[in-house]
């Protein structure tokens, strides 16, 4: 089987870091063409730095990393240091990266890459706000139909919101960008809070990461140790949800996940529900389905895959 060509668009973030590690540890299934950083969990200077830190942690400094948009399309930037710490990767003591950013803007890299490859052969994997993707689509409309699929982490329906009562963070940060992407007409897979909140790093699962004994396994355990304090306190859960690795795990083992093909619209005007992903889960409208909205996973299978792949690094 040919490895699937992807671009990871990201705002690392501890869970973004684990998603990148999983992708780089899975070359049989995933060919990472490049990593594009966007402002989100922390400002762009830190997300671009963190992406390179993670590449070095994985031992894959050959992967180009590009800096992208430093703010949403039309709104001030909202960040999440209260979850991820001031660096975005608080927890492990990781060295500053030696690898340099690749020259050029992330948006131009996305455009050029989609134009350079055969139509329908490159998948976009956004793990943060959708600003880079929407900007690329608006700047070069010809690339939209060349996208194979968009597999993203964002949104919620039954789990409602994690940054407002009704909105998930990634979508809320740049709802206008999300609206562009969801109206693009390309196949979309949504890893919502409904599924990611079932991917909980319990103590035995985190102990398994640490027991790997390699840098990636230990760092993953330390990152989870850090940010689980927030989620345990907020949700009363037994561990932290690993949101973003669900994207890369889906590319490797889609059978671990289940959902429904439904219509998803993005709320962009209401002060009360700004950034809400309005998923027609029960089919009560005549709006055409535009996304596979994922709501469940085999958590044991997910963590077995993640642990096995981290052991390779």
What report would you give on this structure?
The protein has 313 residues and is an alpha/beta fold. It contains twelve helices and twelve strands. The chain has helices at residues 14-24, 44-58, 81-84, 106-116, 131-139, 169-173, 175-182, 193-196, 203-211, 215-235, 245-252, 299-310, and strands at 4-10, 30-37, 65-67, 122-126, 147-153, 188-191, 200-201, 240-241, 257-262, 264-266, 277-279, 291-297. The strands form three sheets. An eight-stranded mixed β-sheet has the order 3-2-1-4-5-6-12-9, sandwiched between helices. Strand 1, helix 1 (14-24) and strand 2 (30-37) form a beta-alpha-beta unit. Helix 1 (14-24) runs antiparallel to helix 10 (215-235) and helix 1 (14-24) packs parallel to helix 11 (245-252). It is globular. The mean pLDDT is 96.
Low-confidence stretches: none
From the helix content, strand content and strand pairing, which structural class follows? alpha/beta
Q: Which strand order does the major sheet show?
A: 3-2-1-4-5-6-12-9
| Percent range for β-strand residues | 15-25%
User: What is the count of DSSP helices, taking H or I runs of 4+ residues?
Assistant: 12
Radius of gyration: 18 Å
- Main beta sheet: strand number and arrangement? 8 strands, mixed
Q: What integer is the average pLDDT?
A: 96
How would you sum up the global shape?
A: globular
Helix-strand topology string: EHEHEHHEHEHHEHEHHEHEEEEH
User: Roughly how many Å apart are the termini?
Assistant: 22 Å
Number of β-strand runs: 12
What level of helicity do the residues show? Answer: 25-40%
């Amino acid at each position: 089987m040919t490895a699937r060509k992807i671009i990871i668009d990201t705002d690392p973030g501890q869970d973004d870091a684990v998603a990148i590690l999983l992708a780089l540890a899975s070359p049989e299934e995933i060919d990472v063409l490049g990593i594009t950083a966007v402002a989100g969990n922390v400002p762009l200077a830190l997300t671009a730095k963190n992406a390179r830190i993670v590449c070095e942690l994985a031992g894959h400094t050959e992967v180009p990393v590009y800096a992208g948009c430093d703010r949403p399309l039309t709104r001030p930037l909202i960040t999440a240091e209260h979850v991820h710490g001031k660096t975005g990767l608080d927890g492990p003591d990781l060295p500053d990266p030696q690898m340099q950013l690749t020259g050029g803007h992330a948006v131009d890299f996305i455009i050029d890459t989609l134009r350079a490859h055969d139509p329908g052969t490159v998948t976009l994997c956004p793990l943060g706000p959708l600003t880079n993707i929407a900007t690329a689509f608006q700047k070069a409309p010809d690339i939209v139909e060349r996208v194979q699929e968009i597999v993203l982490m964002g949104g919620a329906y039954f789990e409602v919101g994690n940054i407002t009562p009704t909105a998930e963070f990634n979508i809320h940060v740049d709802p206008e960008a999300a609206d562009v992407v969801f109206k693009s007409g390309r196949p979309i897979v949504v890893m919502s809070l409904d599924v990611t909140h079932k991917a909980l790093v319990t103590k035995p699962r985190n102990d398994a990461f640490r027991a790997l004994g390699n840098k990636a396994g230990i760092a993953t355990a330390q990152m989870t140790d850090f940010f689980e304090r927030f989620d345990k306190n907020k949700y009363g859960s037994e561990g932290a949800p690993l949101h973003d690795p669900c994207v890369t795990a889906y590319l490797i083992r889609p059978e671990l996940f289940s959902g429904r093909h439904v219509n998803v619209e993005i709320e962009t005007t209401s002060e009360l529900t700004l950034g809400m992903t309005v998923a027609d889960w029960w089919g009560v409208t005549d709006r055409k389905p535009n996304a596979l909205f994922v709501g469940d996973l085999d958590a044991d299978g997910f963590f077995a895959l993640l642990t096995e792949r981290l052991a390779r690094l």
